[in-house]
Amino acid sequence: MVGGLKGIALYFHIKNEYVNYMIEQKKMHLTSLGCAKNLVDSEMMLGSLELEGYTTVEDPAEAELLLINTCGFIRPAVEEAVDEILRLAEYKEDDPKKKLVVTGCMVQRYGKDLQDELPEVDFFVGIDEEKDIASLVNAWSPGSASLYLEGPSCFLADNKVPRRLATPFFRSYLKVTEGCDNHCTYCMIPKIRGDLRSRTVQDLLVEAQALEQGGVKELCLIAQDLTAYGYDLGTGDNLVALLKQLLAETNIPWLRLLYLYPSSVSVELLELMAEQPRIVPYLDIPFQHVSDSVLQKMGRRYGQQDLEQLVSMIRRIVPNCALRTTMMVGFPGETEEDVQIMLDCLQRWQLDHVGVFPYEAEQGSPAAELQDKIERKVREERYVRVMELQAEISTQRLEQYVGKKELVLVEGISRETDLLLEGRTRYQAPDIDGCVFINDGTASPGDIVTVEITEAHTYDLVGGIIS
C-alpha cells in the first residue's frame, strides 16, 4: 500500500503550481505493486483522480473505488497481483456498489484473458489508458467494456500529467523514459511497455523543478535502462546532458541513478559523478549473471571480462561509489561451474548491494523455449548460496563506515521502534537497501544531517547525529 496520501492534495502542473481543490471528496483505496516505475504511474493516476474529488483512505472498507496497479514482469508478481485482487474483491461482497478497477503491466500483458479469469473485477484499464483513469471511472457503469490496447504500450507521459506523490515529500522518482530496446531473452518488458521512448530534457527539467519546489531533497532517476536515455530523440541528448541540466537548473541536493546497462556506462558519466557531489556515489547496474555462456543465452551484450573492466573503472574514477546489482540463478543451461564463477566474482568484486532471484520461465519470452531447464529445488539452493555469500560481503562492506561521519537523509521514526529515527546515507537507495538507525539526536523527516556511525550489521548501520 502506498503511503503518505493523507491531507491536502498536491498536484504538479505545467505552470509548476500547487493548487488546493475544495470539492466534494469521494474515497478511494490504491494498491501499487511492483517497481518504482510503476509507482510513478500510480502517482499520476492519484493526481488525476484527486482532481476529480477523490481522497485516498487506508481502509478498503471505507472506499467506493478500489484501484490496483499491477506488475506483470514475472510470475511471482502476477501471483501477488491476483492475490491482492481477490483480497480486495471480498470488500465488494459486503458492498456491491464498490468499483474494483485493475490497471498496469499485468493487464497490458494478459489483456482479455483476465476478464474470464477474474470476474470479480469491474473493469480493467491498460497502461495507455491510465492517464484517463478519472474519466473512465466516472463514465463506467455495469456492463461497460474494459479498455486496453492490444500489444505493447506506446504512451509517454510529460509534465502536464497531474501527479500526486505517494512517497514522502522529500524524495521522489523521475521517470525519464518508457519502454526498452534491449530485448533480453528472459524479459517481457518490451512486449508490455514497448520500444524506448525518451522524454525531452526540457520536459524533465520542468517536472524536476516542480518537485524541488515541493521540498524534494533526493531525486532518483529511473528507467528500464538509464544509459539509453535520449538515443531515440535524435538531438544528441543523453544521460550526461540531462544530469548537467539538472545540476544547473535545480538545487536538489541528491541525484541518484537507478538501473544502468553494464556495457553502456561511460567514462564521461563517471567523471561527471566524481566532479559533482550532488550526484550521489551510487550506481544500480543489473549484471544478471557473470558467466559468458549464460549471458549470451540471456541476450546481454557483454561478458565477464567486460564486467571486470567496468567494476575496475568505477572504482578507479569514483572510488567511494556504492555498487548495487541483481543476479539471476537457475537460467536454462546454467551449470555448477557457472554458479561458482558468479560466487568467485562476487567475492572478488565486493559489491555493496546484490539482489538475487531464481529464474522464472515467462510465457512468451524466448528463454521459455530454451532446453536444459533447471529444477526449482536446484534454483532455490543456488539462490540461498549466493545470498549467504553476499550477506557476509555486505557485513564487511558496512564495517568500513564505523567511526566515519556520513550525511544521512532522515526518513522519520524508525519502522523497528519509535525510540529511534531512521535514515539513509548516500550509499543506500530508498526501499531496496538497508538504512541507518539513529539512536542519538533529533531531526525532522527530510533533514540531511551528519551522523557518526558506531555500529554495522548485515544490511544496516547505527549512529548518532553530531552537531
Number of strands: 18
Quaternary assembly = single chain
Mean pLDDT: 92
Please summarize the sheet with the most strands: 6 strands, parallel
What spatial order of strands do you see in the largest sheet?
A: 6-9-10-11-12-13
- Outline, from the CA principal axes? globular
Helix and strand content put the structural class at: alpha/beta
Strand content: 15-25%
- Secondary structure tally, helices: 13
Radius of gyration: 22 Å
- pLDDT < 50 runs, ≥5 residues: 1-23
Helix content: 25-40%
Q: Give the termini separation.
A: 36 Å
Please characterize this protein's 3D structure.
The protein is of the alpha/beta class and 467 residues long. It contains 13 helices and 18 strands. The chain has helices at 36-51, 75-94, 105-110, 113-117, 133-139, 189-193, 201-213, 239-249, 267-275, 292-298, 304-317, 336-349, 376-399; strands spanning 26-32, 54-56, 65-70, 99-104, 123-125, 171-175, 177-178, 197-198, 218-222, 254-258, 279-284, 322-329, 353-358, 405-413, 421-425, 436-440, 448-456, 461-465. It has a 6-stranded parallel sheet. A 5-stranded parallel sheet has the order 2-1-3-4-5, sandwiched between helices. The chain has a 5-stranded mixed barrel with strand order 14-15-16-18-17. β3, α2 (75-94) and β4 (99-104) form a beta-alpha-beta unit. α7 (201-213) packs parallel to α8. It is globular, with a radius of gyration of 22 Å. The two termini are 36 Å apart. Residues 1-23 have low confidence and may be disordered.
Give the gist of this structure:
It contains 13 helices and 18 strands. The chain is α/β, with parallel strands linked by helices and 467 residues long.
